[in-house]
Each structure stands twice: as structure tokens, then as C-alpha cells.
Amino acid sequence: MILPEHKEETANTLEVSCGAQLPGTDLSLRFHLILDVDEIVDCRLRTGFSHRGIEKRAEELTYHQLTSLLSLVDASSGISGELAFCLAVERLMGWKVPERAVWIRMIMAELSRMASHLGWLSRFSAIMGSEAGYHYAERDRDRVLRLLELVTGSRIAPNYVRVGGVREDLPAEFEPRLTEFLHLFKRRYEEYHLLLTENRFFRDRVENLAVLSKEDAYSYGVTGPNLRACGIRIDARKNAPYSGYDQVVFKIPMGRKGDCFDRYSVRLKEIRESVEIVKQAMEALRQGEVLNSPPLGPIPPPGQAYVGIECPHGQLGLFLKSDGTEKPYRLRIRGPSMAHLMALGKVLLGQRISDLPTIVSSFDISMSEAER
């Protein structure tokens, strides 16, 4: 529960409760608002509608079983939880991953990032009244999810990354279908710009709306696209490279003011950069093994490790402590969305109630990841 400083009540004060299902979003989150006419003067965010206790449950499962559980941490990017966990176990064990598996992990992670951003873009377009934007984004997201399903067998919970590599190699039909989509998406990207970025009515509604300052972004621990929209150049793939990201060339999209338009623009440009990363990874892909797994399953020696990766919503950190048994002693996840919820409570103050869905959607918060 986030409790900003309460303002003095007036004759025009009205208490409003929104949620736990906010119209136009997929959040399981309740907003307790105090309005002065239509201005939000107090905002209390109440969570607790989707808590699953993943971190405690992790202590009861073996390392081999945990990948399927951690693919459920973030419903829009199941690969992220699996990858962070496997990197932490591999760091504890000093285990090497085959080169082909490194590139496959990168391809799957970037496709998952594209699917997540396109899913967000469809919801954001619908809230902004752009039915065409909604259908365009859902169309492209479905194509990306089909590629993920072709490789992993699932669209939402892939359970594909393994300690020491990946579960299985890419199917033969994957490369031609991926190449076709990447070629097609270049034109799709221009369509989004024409439809939204260059749309005067769209820009009038989102520019200078809900500005998040650099100072507040730092104070609340904001990461990912929401942080880069404020003009802060931090990306774990560049600042602390993992899984081969130091071997590919890509740009870090940046904003200037930290408003809703910058948050939209950064995510749209990140999709384009993900396309470039996938192209480079496919060119670097060579034949070879995809799994270097311990014969008796992963059993790390006593110790602890921390890994931070760049998931679609921000930086996902995973702390793992081992006592030398087949089950982890402690697993702790630091997801980006809870910090973004706290920053959201700050930027909502002084905004109009009619802008609430637009502002909330612009932060792209995953409640499945915030409430594990």
C-alpha cells in the first residue's frame, strides 16, 4: 500500500475507488483516490490481489523443477525469470554454456521483449482510442508469439531455458519464418509512426502528461524504459552485459522529459532495436550443442549469487543462496514493477481523473511480477 501525503479536504472533495480491475488495463490493482473536482489530490495504491508466494515455494522445489515455476513470474515475458535463475545457478557452479545456446537465449529473450512491448502498445492504443493501433499491434504480437510457440511449445510460460543451455535446438522451420517476419516488421514499424507518433491528436493527449523527473526516478528505483524515458542511459545489457550482449551492436533509446509520450516512444524504438539484435544473433549462430547440463542435475556448492538482467519492464534482479543441497536455501527476486508502482503514486498527484488509464498504462506495470 502506497500512501502519499494526504491533502486537506474541501467541500469539493470526493473519494473514489477504482479497481481491482482498472478499465483499459490488465492490472489487478485497486486505486483509492481523493479528488478535488476532477483533480487527483491523494492516491493510495492497494496491492494483494495476485500474490502467489513464488519465492517461498522455490525453497520446496529442486533446481531442475524451478525453471517452470520462474517462467510464471512475469506473464508477458516468461523467458526473463528462467534466464535470470539459470544465470545465477551457472554463476554459483562456474558452469559454461555452449555458444549456440547463448545466441538462442538472446534470440528468445529479444522476441519475448518484442511480444511484451507489442502487447503493451495494443493496450495503450486502445486506451487512446486508436482501434487501428490496437489491431496492428495485436497482429504483430501474435506473429511473435507464434515464433516463440514454435520453439518452446508455449506462448506464455515457455519453460525453455535450462541450467547449462536451453531445452532443445531451434526447429528447421524457425529461421525462414523469423527472417520473413523481421523483413516485414520494417514496414510495420513505419506504420506505427504514421499512425501514432505523427498523429497530432495522439501527441496532444500524451505530451507533457505525468512527467517523471530524473530525481524522482532515481529516488524510487525506477529502471527500464520508464527510466530511460527520463533521459537516464542505464540498460543492464550495456552496463553489465550478460548472455553475449557485449558482442552485438544496438542503441539505447532515450527520452527527454519523462512524460507519457517519451515512455511510448522509448518502447516503440526498443522493438526496432530488438529486431537488429535478433538479426545479429541469427548471423552469429553456428552449429553445435545447446545444452551442457550436469549429469545428476544442477546442485550448486554452498554460496550465493546475484544476477540482474534487462527484462521488458525494467531490471529484474535475482538473488540465490545455496546450502549445497538439491534445493535452494533462499531465492529472492527484485522486480521493477513494485518500484514503478511507487513512482506512479507520485506522478498521479495533480493529474485529472480522466487521464488515469493513460498514465497507468504508460508505465507498463506487470502485477504478476510485482506480486509474486
Please give a structural write-up.
With 372 residues, the protein is α+β, with helices and mostly antiparallel strands. The chain has a single domain, classed as Cytochrome-c3 Hydrogenase, chain B (Orthogonal Bundle). Helices cover 46% and strands 13% of the residues. It is built from 14 helices and 8 strands. The chain has helices at residues 54-57, 63-70, 78-93, 99-127, 131-152, 174-197, 200-206, 214-220, 225-228, 236-239, 260-284, 337-347, 356-362, 367-370, and strands at 13-18, 30-36, 39-46, 161-162, 165-166, 303-311, 314-322, 330-334. A 3-stranded antiparallel sheet has the order 1-2-3. A 3-stranded antiparallel sheet has the order 6-7-8. A hairpin with a 2-residue loop joins strand 4 and strand 5 (165-166). Helix 4 packs antiparallel against helix 5, helix 4 (99-127) packs antiparallel against helix 13 and helix 5 packs antiparallel against helix 6 (174-197). The mean pLDDT is 91. One of its GO terms (molecular function) is quinone binding. It holds the Pfam family Complex1_49kDa. It comes from Candidatus Hakubella thermalkaliphila. Keywords: Quinone.
